[in-house]
Amino acid sequence: MPSHQDALRCALHTIDRNLVTFATLFPDDTTTNNVYQPRRPRGGQPLGSNFDWTPGFWTGMLWLAYELTGGARYREGAEQQLPSYIDRLDRKIYVNTHDLGFLYSLACVAPWRLTGNAAAKQAALIAADLLMVRYLDSAGIIQSWGDLDDPQQRGRAIVDSLMNMPLLYWASEVSGDGRFAAAASRHATQLHDHMVRPDNTTYHTFYWDPATGAPLGGKTAQGYADDSCWARGQAWAIYGFALNYRYTQDPALLHTAAACADYFLAHLPADHVPYWDLVFTDGSSEERDSSAAAIAVCGLQEIVRWLPDGPQKERYAAAAGTILASLIENYSTCNHPESNALILHGVYGKPQGSGVDEGNLWGDYFYLEALARAIKPDLQPYW
After folding, report:
1. What residue numbers bound the domain in which 152 lies?
2. Count of CB atoms situated within 10 Å of the CB of 170
3. Does position 1 have pLDDT exceeding 90, yes or no?
4. What is the pLDDT of residues 32-82, one digit of tens each?
């Protein structure tokens, strides 16, 4: 089986090829027939533009490649993309979303940490300010999607949003303004208290009454059913609660990250990569979601970082290694040079028929981060 170093070399080779195609353009959210094309024109934006929630994963891959190798081409490629993130803020292009954390942690916080880029720091702080606009004090949450006055979205948070809170913690660290971290901490606590079911599965989305802050209930958007466990959502919970623990040191968050991991691991099929919803098991004809596996590996790696030595830590470290080994052996594109993704067989939204059995940018990013963390255990992720 290929080693972590072999898998990294293969991934970097693919990133090198993509630098030629996507030097000034951004790839689409998912592949089409396993090949990324320039991002489709949407919302009045031209072909290949920096739009929607996923471009940061491509930029983040370049920063990881730079950190791992010191290759100037990766830094130059990522820095060439920075003006487009600043332009998004200036022109308010798809900034009414919690996804600002996905975008600006990877595209702007990363270069600030790695190179001291002042323009990137300023852009990330502006993004944090915009994310704070979405804070609903009555419910103690960051509203995830849509116009703040939209009754369909008012008072709604999604499990993915846990991954966006590090932008706010970082903003408090560099600005000295504690409002950001306080909002992030309260948001994480609210999701901990209401989005995790008694059996340690997670809702994809959850509603609070915007007037009173009372919890109303959960619904899915990309899972199989409201009461099922969407695989990628469970992976977001594993990593997201662990990341929020890093900043808050609230032991309840680490405990819940581990409990979500236990459920995830107990519902994996034989090759250790989940179906797109954990309601499906071995023998199902449903598609796998390799991106959920990659996110979960990163989450397990983060949990391991904080646990004391002992059987639980060893079990999660072994599980992370087993899942990553399966991704390398069975899902990576090392033996599929026709693809320009890093891993195949992901799912964006099965109910919507979107990106089903394709590569996707977030799966590629977290796969690369998982490899980086396996090779360099002291690596500090950009979240």
Report:
1. 4-375
2. 27
3. no
4. 999 999 999 988 999 999 999 999 999 999 999 999 999 999 999 999 999
Residue 380 domain flag: no
Supply the residues annotated as catalytic: 99, 160
Res. 107 pLDDT band, cuts 50 70 90: very high
This prediction has a pTM of 0.98
Asked if residue 182 has pLDDT above 90, the reply is yes
* Residue 24 resides in a domain: yes
For residue 38, CA distances in Å to 18, 26, 41, 50, 332 come to 11, 6, 9, 10, 21
**CATH code at 80?**
1.50.10.10
| Residue among 163, 162, 318, 160 at smallest CA distance from 232 | 160
In this structure, is residue 162 part of a structural domain? yes
pLDDT in tens, 316-370: 999 999 999 999 999 999 999 999 999 999 999 999 999 999 999 999 999 999 9
For the chain, what is the domain count? 1
Whether 126 maps to a domain, the answer reads yes
